[in-house]
Queue: 4 jobs
Job 1
Amino acid sequence: MTRQSTVMISSTIIDAVKRSSSIAVIGNGGNLAIAKHAASDMSRHLNKFCFAPECIHMSALGGDERWHEKWIDQYASGAADLLIGITTRIDSPIAKALENKHAVIFAPKRHMCVPTVVINKNTFHEFEVETLWQFYMLMEQCGAVLPSINN
């Protein structure tokens, strides 16, 4: 059952997910929790190898500095066909690290060079909740049949 969404997910993004056998999802803070949740359910519902950063990556790769670029460049890029970033800023370290890569971002505004699912929300929490919902809409558009509460 495909539900209607108020957010437009382009056919380019849908096709990229369909064609990929492995997908890395990255976020920061609350968006990292969304990334981990989305990667887990994408694995389960799309039968793809999907993963997100573990806390070991943050400390081992970053120390007290930014770890996002290192995780994307040293780990995710070599292990995934597609990279998906979740960020509330199109100029964030995550967005910058995904430029010139086979990548997609979920962000409040369209990125100039990375295909974007625009989540136009005013607060961080609204953005996080809507982003997770849009991952489910994306999964359905890629053929997933999501379980019903009544089943």
Job 2
Amino acid sequence: MNKPIWRIAISLVLIVVLVGFGVTAFQGSLTPYRSFREARAGGYVQVNGTLADPASTSTSEGILRFHLKDTDGEVLAVAYEGVKPANFEQATSVVAIGRFHDGVFEADQLLVKCPSKYQAEGGKEYQDAREVPLERSPDGGV
């Protein structure tokens, strides 16, 4: 075989190996969303819910403790060691990333979704432009 063909073959094999490694590493870094029931089974996962009772949230020794409630009404005790996110009590949704251990979901990260400052009073987040009449200036322009 010619030298250029060997170089091409070795380069292609190397590219395939690197792409395979990249895909495998990427898949390993993904943290799947799971239901509370599935989270209790183990593994590093993300759970999503609302604060079950914002008044029962407590912080002691740098650990934030609270309860999340999912769409099925199931409640999960969560412990998070870290700084309490701003506007935590007003959160419309909380995502906790971590693992279930000894009856408590131990979160490494919290993602808090707060109400939009752009949300209208009636709960509608935006108004369709087609629903708003155009205002005309006195000279007839838009």
Job 3
Amino acid sequence: MPRVIEVRLGHAISDQIGVGSNRHCDKSASRSVRLWSLHPSVLDRQGLIALWREGLLAQKVLLGQTKGYRFHPQLNRLRASKNPVAAISTYLWAVLDEARARGYKFDASKIARRRNPAVSISVTDGQLEFERQHLIRKLRVRDPARAHKLKALRLRPHPMLRVVAGGVEPWEIV
């Protein structure tokens, strides 16, 4: 039996989610896409669910199945890879792994490609730090204890990313 997660506005949805509509999400969160470079384990429940949905939306964009968000800067790093659909699929597999570790039942059939551990994209250490600070600001409101822990954690990237020296990535909206 799938666990039920309470979403911010109190609407219940099944853990077995796909793209679906955003009617249960808070409107400010649905205005921008965030494909975190940080390891999915640092996200709270709300952040992990949003990441899954936004990753699936990015996958639809890269597959040419939607007209919205086609020019979103967060997609530039995926488009720059040899195979953007394989890259987003690899990204989503790691999100799915974290969801399963928490007992959530995200639908793996939504991922376009099979696992490919050879897919890797670089990310700067400056980007990871930027995202840590961004996430801490969000978590101060939603989960102050997690925000406090995140301050002290050693930064870990998403499993498909390899860290290189540098500042905030050019695709980041600051």
Job 4
Amino acid sequence: MKLYKAARKYRKKLESNLSGKGILFEHILDCEQVAELKNNWLAHFAEGIKTSDIYIDEFMWNIFSYKRLSCSAGDEAAAQFLLQAKTQCYILFEHHKDAYYLENAASLTQDDLIDGIDFESKDLYVVSKRFNWTYVLTHESDCGPYYYHKKMFNKQ
């Protein structure tokens, strides 16, 4: 899998941020595994939601921006993400075929995720290993971030 120079630079910075906080991580480069993770994200968060008219194939986060799934947004979302345990989670990128698996990521912050980010990596998803919650950053200044937890919004 080939990443553009800017994306490689961002991954290096992200990995440095993770290591500096003692967060254990694995860079997932298997395209099929990453596709399966994205499909799982959609299966858990977009199941039963009409998505044919919200361009979900372009941006999975459109389920939030089109208000098809209730969530927290903006500063409230960032605050909830900060409080989330993040014991085991993934980082997925909308337009790249790589991902990260993280353990012991309680100290992970939005700043760690956006530090040195390149434009193509800006649409990213942090999701629990069990797909119970997700935190989404977008490239749009007026969309997101979004935080959704199944227990908060009664989707079991």
